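Sequence only, no structure available. Ideas?
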Amino acid sequence: MIYKAFQNLKLSALGMGAMRLPVIGGDDGAVNEGETERMVSYAMDHGINYYDTAWGYHNGQSELVLGKALSKYPRNSFYLADKFPGYDLSNMGKVKEIFEKQLEKCGVEYFDFYLFHNVCEMNIDAYLNEEYGIYPYLMQQKKSGRIRHLGFSAHGSYEVMKRFLDAYGDSMEFCQIQLNYLDWSFQNAKAKVDLLAEYQIPVWVMEPLRGGRLASLSDEYAQELKNLRPEESIPAWAFRFLQSVPGVTMILSGMSNFEQLQENIHTFKDNKPLNEQELLCLLDISGRMVGKIALPCTACRYCVSHCPKGLDIPSLLALYNEHCFTDGGFIAPMVMNTIPDEKRPNTCIGCRSCLPSTDKSFRSNGRFLPPHGHVKRRLIRHGLSKAF
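Reply:
I predicted one. Tokens follow.
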């Protein structure tokens, strides 16, 4: 097992996420305790010492099941992470009640790592609202030793992360973001990694395989990678990419069966970052994967300046692309719910102001450019409004 230094700790580079534990009969709330204990036992025996859970995982059962599985081991032999569930705004005034209950459910007296969960557009104002007292309470728990290290996870935009860091960055010891070779550009993950580097905050990775999407690729893409590393599995490429990103300390994987656990542990026996040729090939494949589904947009914002409704067209297109690529998911609807009604896609009046002066290709700086403005308009008015 590869280990990474974090302050005075030695953390396994691979952490076990308890968001996708094995379940019975497809019921997310019916965690298979026996199989989970078997997986935790194997993980402990093979060097994994970091375990991540949360209030809402598996309908509230994750903390209970993981805590029970870990209770068989000395408390100083593993590191346990939990999170304050600020993704639900109704929890904002319950930080003390929830924190005490989490300790009880996990069967521990302290958390090694604790996070503000899912800092995003929906909850950033509430997280920064002093009336709720979330930050002072968690800092007090850290002072008393019931939280050893405090950080945050973020599904929000770069701008939201920046707001949070401007407020609490001096106290944040780590940050957990969605990071993989597809989201390096698609979700602006590179900029988020750079932002955390500015604050000297280590990166914790969630969704290294993007919910399993990167666990298998088309035959065409798989063969291109096999030509470069014949011995490497397709999932391993996602982990090797992360081993190539400076600042990454912890890579969490939500392994839902024993075989996935075994394969990932095998991958993390060695540190094999990608060379330049391999990295360029992987990112090229990523671009082609996204290009087959997503609507191209360079965010030049020329269309925005002409919109009489003041719609943020590039941002709406980005949400549409995210929604289409993930076949749904929670990120795009979550952000859409924070947008004022008058700035949502269905307010488009179809005036065509975002179009070039003619529907035909037009010349700019001696080049012909495609008339894609009307595609944007139709997408925003019909596709995006229906998607959400």
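Confidence is low (pLDDT under 50) at residues 357-388.
Hope that gets you unstuck.
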